[in-house]
Amino acid sequence: MFRHDHPATLDNHITVAMSNDSTTVTKIAEIIINELKLEDVTPESFDADLDLVDEVGIDSMDLATIALVLRDEYGIRIDEDDYPKLTTVRIIAAYIEDKLNSND
Amino acid sequence: MQSPQKEYKFSDIIADPVIRKRWEKVRRYFFLRESTYDMSNRCNIRCEGCYYFTGEKQFADTNSDPAAWRNLFLEEKKRGITFVVLAGAEPALEPELCEVCFQEIPLGAIATNGLKPIPKHIDYRMHISVWGNDQTSLAVRKAPDMLLRQMDNYKNDPRAVFVYTFSPVNIDEAREVTQLLAENGQQITFNMFSAPVGYNGHLRHTAGTLAHTRQVMTELLSEFPETVLFSPYNIIAHTEEKGLHELFSCSYPRMNPSTDIGLGRSFRQYRTDLQWDRDAACCVPDTDCGDCRHYAAGSAVVTARMYRHATDPKTFSAWLDYVDTYLAVWVRRYEKGDNLCPDPKIPPAQ
Fold first, then answer.
1. Are A25 and A64 in contact (CB under 8 A)?
2. Fewer Cβ atoms within 10 A, N terminus or C terminus of chain A?
3. Mean pLDDT over the full length of chain B
4. Which residues pair with B110 in a beta bridge?
5. A65 Cβ under 8 Å from any chain B Cβ
6. What's B232's DSSP letter?
7. How far off is chain A from B244, nearest CA to CA, in Å?
8. How open is the CA angle B282-B286-B292, to the nearest 5 degrees?
9. A74 in contact with B at a CB cutoff of 8 Å?
10. In DSSP terms, which residues pair with B165 in a beta bridge?
11. Which residues does B231 contact at the CB level (< 8 Å), separation at least 6?
12. Which domains does chain B have, with CATH numbers?
């Protein structure tokens, strides 16, 4: 069902595998639904591959807010320069997992 | 030995009811997406250091066809633009075009010198530029009795906010201007002269004039809290020796190559021929980016850096004060609250 089943190149320097951890994906979807007050969608039904900017309509301030909630939830720091790369729930999940793994 | 600084969660910061209330107040305006438009290449005065008459945009053809402008604004709406800034050279000389814009996009502001009143049914915020007392204005802008005429044209007009641009030659005059506006029941906010590209004249700020400006702004904010729309953090952010780009990394297209999200994606600066150029696109084109402390730039650039300010309650309160000020200055009917952070905060690095 996923449109992306291969690694996604985020930029010339960072390559992050697409997350298949459904727990992280569902948690991020829940955060986005709560912060954006989205209706008619649940964390389980949220399409993790929707483009958050083009298809959900979030803007930079929404993303900054979500980044702060993710910081609380996972104890990670999200660089401002990385915001533009965080375009889907699945990419965000992969980014978080990458950050958590690099802290091990 | 210094104790390690406490690390706050964002949820801890906004658990404070005062902070949470202000946060909920400002975040309702996160839908604002701006672009700017030069409405005319004509002006009824000619000021030294004017950004409009610098660079190529002043030579663009003028399109005065209301139908063409309406079509542009309809397309802008489709693109997601929810806030317009009508500027250069003097929008008041094109009231019909301003009205067309207002009919299509009802939130916005007009940058005007205030010498020709803009019809009241164009219900945008009116930013009336002030460059000193009338003696200085006569010298720099070549127009007599400017402040008296501006105050008269916009008396009892809730759209109006006077924008005092501090330059090295008018710092101490801000007091008499603020006093006059206070007596007249009008409001003022502060801007910093930011040199156009290639300008090395006497209006460019130095370390000394920045410090002097900071002192005068602080005194005026304290003495005229009902008249001055500003905050302690605004003062710091706009009078540091480092400019806004160095402090906050400007997010306008001219300095930001990303087209993925935010201003880099949506902002355009249209010239009078209804064309725009990504390489020149920012709120005050042809400003020297290294010297930019412009109030319009800060409104977007400081606001965009919310994440780095969410480190502790005081720093986040300072950011909230800044955003609350920006909304009060730019959005009709938005009422500024009391400043939450009275202490000057050093702008945080990323």
1. no
2. C
3. 94
4. B86, B126
5. yes
6. H
7. 16
8. 70
9. no
10. B191
11. B221, B318, B321, B322, B324, B325, B339, B341
12. 30-311 (3.20.20.70)
In a domain, A73, yes or no: yes
Q: What is the value of ipTM here, to two decimals?
A: 0.87
Pair of tokens at residue B19: 């902070």
Residue with tokens 């008296």: B148
CA-nearest of B75, B2, B19, B80 to B309 is: B19
Across-strand partners of B86?
B37, B110
Contact B310 A68 (CB under 8 A): yes
Q: What is the pLDDT of residues B43-56, one digit of tens each?
A: 999 988 787 888 88
pLDDT band at B345 (very low <50, low <70, confident <90, very high): confident
Q: Contact B269/B300 with Cβ under 8 angstroms?
A: no
Token duo for residue B176: 């008499």
- How many other C-beta atoms lie within 10 A of the C-beta of residue A95? 21
User: Which one, of B215, B248, B302, lies nearest residue B26 by Cα?
Assistant: B302
Give the pairing of strands B34-38 and B269-270.
parallel
CA distance A22 to chain B (A): 25
Residue A98 pLDDT class (50, 70, 90 cuts)? very high
Which chain B residue shows the shortest CA-CA distance from A85?
B260
Residues written for chain A? 104
User: What tokens does B101 get?
Assistant: 């814009």
Q: Report yes or no: B142 and B115 within 8 Å, Cβ to Cβ.
A: no
Closest by Cβ to B30, choosing from A59, A85, A87: A59
Question: Mind listing the pLDDT tens digit for each residue in B113-154?
Answer: 999 999 999 999 999 999 999 999 999 899 999 999 999 999
Range of the domain at A27: 8-102
For an interface test with A, which of B307, B311, B312 has the most A Cβ atoms less than 10 Å from its Cβ? B307
Strand partners, B38: B87
Q: Does A80 touch chain B (CB under 8 A)?
A: yes
Give the tens place of pLDDT for each residue, B69-91. 999 999 999 999 999 999 989 99
> Looking at the complex, does the CB of residue A54 fall below 8 Å from at least one CB of chain B?
no
Residue A28 lies in a domain: yes
- Specify if A1 maps to a domain: no
Tokens linked to A79: 């660089």
Which helix (H) or strand (E) covers residue B160, if one does?
strand B160-166
Provide the CATH number for the domain around residue A72: 1.10.1200.10
Q: Which two tokens stand for residue B349?
A: 């690095």
